[in-house]
Write the structure tokens for this entry.
Amino acid sequence: MNLLIKNGFVYDPINEINGEIMDIAIRNDKIVESVPERTSKIIDASGLTVFPGGVDIHTHIAGGEVNTGRLVRPEDHEKDFVRKTAITRSGVGYSIPSTFTTGYRYSRMGYTTVMNPSMACLEAKHTHEELNDIPMLDKATYPLLGDWWLVLENIAKGDLEACARYVAWMLEITKGYAIKIVNPGGLESWGFGRNVHSIDDQVPNFGITPREIMCGLAKVNKMLNLPHTIHLHTNNLGIPGNYATTLETMKCLESIPSDGKPVVHITHLQFSSFAGEDWGSFRSGAGEIAKYINNHDHVTFDMGQIVFTDTTTMTADGPFEYTLYQLSGHKWVNTDIETETSGGIIPFHYKRKNPVNAIQWSIGLELALMTKNPWKVFMTTDHPNAGPFTAYPKILAWLASKKARMATFKRLHKKAQKKSLLPSIDRELSLYDIAIVTRSGQAKALDLKEKGHLGVGADADVAIFNLNPEEVDIANKYKTFRRAFSNAAYTIKAGKVLVKDGEILQQSDGKTIWLDLQTSKEIEISEEIKRKFREYWTVEYENYPVSDHYIKHSSPLTIKADV
Amino acid sequence: MSKIDAVTCPVCGCLCDDIELTIADGVVAQVKNGCAMCEAKFFSHNNDHRLKTPLIRKDGKLVPSTYDKAIRKSAEILAKANYPILYGWSSTDCEAQRVGVELAEEVGGVLDNTAVVCHGPSILSVQEVGIPTCTLGQIRHRADLLIYWGCNPWSAHPRHLERYTAFTEGRFKGSEWKSYINKVKAAAGRKKLRSLERIGVLKHKPEQVAPTVSDNKPPAILNKKGRKLIVVDVRKSMTAEMADYFLQVKPGKDYELIQAMRALVRDQELDVEEVAGVPVEYLQQLVDAMISCQFGIIFFGMGLTQSPSKFRNIDVAISLIRDLNMRTKFAIMPMRGHFNVTGANTVFTWQSGYPYAVDFSLGYPRYNPGETTVVDVLLRQESDAGLVIASDPASNFPRKAVEHLVKKPLIVIDPHMNATSLVGDVVLPSEIVGIEKEGTAYRMDHVPLPLKKVVDPPKGLLSDEEILRRILKEVRKIKSKKLEAA
């Protein structure tokens, strides 16, 4: 079927189109040069803003951890339920929506592609089963590999090639997309209740340091030609003074050869940019971090922006969740996964009048605004850790409007106001910048060539917002802007109109994108590995992989590796 | 004759996936690695008395029918019902459970699984205080203190000890199988002596009869290095026979005992001599052993969830683990019974937000255990139809609840005839999941495992998933016709 989107103000940063009035032609599920107007369905977009479909690089929406979060928070669901309609399934919100609701809510904001960033390999089937039940979106997921015994052992031995082959094998059998590293070394230490506190601490029983793990996996990432960089959650996350660790982390990855391309994506950087010695002297380290990133091109990051609300924190960083538990005394879930990783969950309420939370809010925005190049910054809340993804329009308003920022700023705890750099920052992101930080930059960092732009050959994923950029100055009328981005005028995915004026028109399944890695030698599974398998895990080798049965709409991306 | 390796056993929450089957003439001929329950299940597919045609009740009698008629009849019952219950789910695969949620939503029913009479209280406590837990391999590799509380894996999860805990060889902790063999030998020896006494070869010595209540004195081994197995129960179970230390708690006093332990973990003094039949001095030794271990775990079962105080027991047990984590590494795990009860909780949660007792009657998921739990709905006589799948509530629900269940139209889906199918109005036989149908199940520690199809089902039989799909389709057809008529 043909579709023609006429006369919209088009923002397509990858093709350097900045608000030009243009037509976008769609044939079936792709964007094409033109379609005959007579036989096409026409969408009149005059006076509307046309963006590529949104791409989220980091959002916890599926898998064991997310689902346990749902299970422990009935009080979170009760206040936000969703009725069944003739088209859509029922469900619940708020901070951890049920699968169907997740899909609908993303789609209503104009998102079409999301990345689930934290998958325990042993429970990969669970993640994929849930992804199948998230409609409206294309999805991919990152397996947690930073504390996997076979990675630790092979890096400790210095055998990067073996390590690369194991990683390739794991990415393939778990149907993953990128290497996720969480608190490298810390999670293995957490197996016996300990942690690492710097990138040069020894990991007990393995004779290896976080520095070696990160550098090793960054090199492996390069050897395998993976589309995304290593996706890193730093050591000491959430601890005052950790900006120094973050700087060291970025420095230690400087030397990885990369031909000018990024080497590392530091995720939810806000949580890794704390200065001060303790919670009392807590302040922002965003200045130093942004300065470093402005001078180096091997780093991209996403914000992990705090929103003042009641939410649920969940991360593979078990020791960090334990710290949060000690701080809050709230209900605490910890789940250690054999030979691979750990995980934890704590409900958390970010409050404006709590000085630490208020400074955290400021840090996220400082990072995004002080980093000069928008292609290095992506807007996330690390859903649901710093706030649910439904808060994205609010954050966009803070980024695009100083007026919006200051409206929130003046209600913060006084101590936080004094410590914040925000009053001195005048930068306001334009719609073009907004398109970069919410879709184009993210697609580029993920090397999803058919996402995040509207050029010929791209997937026909388009978001149209009820906003006339000629009439509305978003910095001034930020509420109009926020409203427009909360409910898309149209969300088009794979050529189908899924949402109109914030209402779901039809339910549609998305694809699951995964890496089909072509190594020069077929990855051999020797009897040795099978024997190890029995020793390391409590499941049989044959029952570990995610078979095709678990992927409803499979979309493999073939990559040729150098090993 | 063919061999199939790495088959997952669809019986208990252990979900052992190393079963080796020999198939001869389309029938399971030999089961290797499995326990007695596993063998019984795999051989059951070939039972003579297995139900192979759907039944519909006519004039008070169940008479053979066809799938089309039975499915049509089921759909009519559900479409007409105002407040139906859809119960069971724990012994079928996740694929069927997913369709089940959709069906419950479509008919506006109450969706519940067997957790309601099992580990429901555990879930309530997890929602109160959270849960520090881990996967079973973590225990194999790291745990040096294992406590089974109110459960008897020797009988209910026969391979739990050998596959996951005391008798496995981990990376950091060795197996205690040698001491295990000694204990088994000693137990066998004792048995022999007793039988010799019975037949009069040996003189009977009445003073050696073990006291009914043990004195609960901890053995010296608690202070030593290496893996230790502790059992806490009201009676000396077979697992307790194998244990390094058996702590006998007075029935119904678990809550008190755990609270006392919490106090001791927090270095408080107790002003009493004994708690729940255990001298405080001994309890102190136990707590010291718990604090000084490297990685400890408590497994708990029905003895804790379904004894007086119910979810408060679990609440306080998890709180004990929270306290212990300030001193060392400790975890806790429920011993889930049915092979896929964890899967039912998991699937219900991702689709509706709630693990059991989900009420769709208002068009959205609602959860209020005590009100929306199936037993309570039945006791209040509110439901007006029922669908029971992969479960047998007639033989284990309270009598009053069963009476109401039987009074209203009842659909039963199960591979075998059971007490519930005997009183059902429509009985739909199905393939046995994990033997005749492939699928997915979740182990007690939330690890998903594939179930295999190892033999062909009897001719003409449908799977749970397919039956539910067809019922759902019929229900939608009936509803849309009603809408047109209106």
In short: The first helix of chain A runs from residue 64 to 72. The domain at 2-52+458-504 of chain A is CATH 2.30.40.10 (Urease, subunit C; domain 1). The longest strand of chain A covers residues 2-12. Chain A touches chain B through 60 residues (CB under 8 Å).
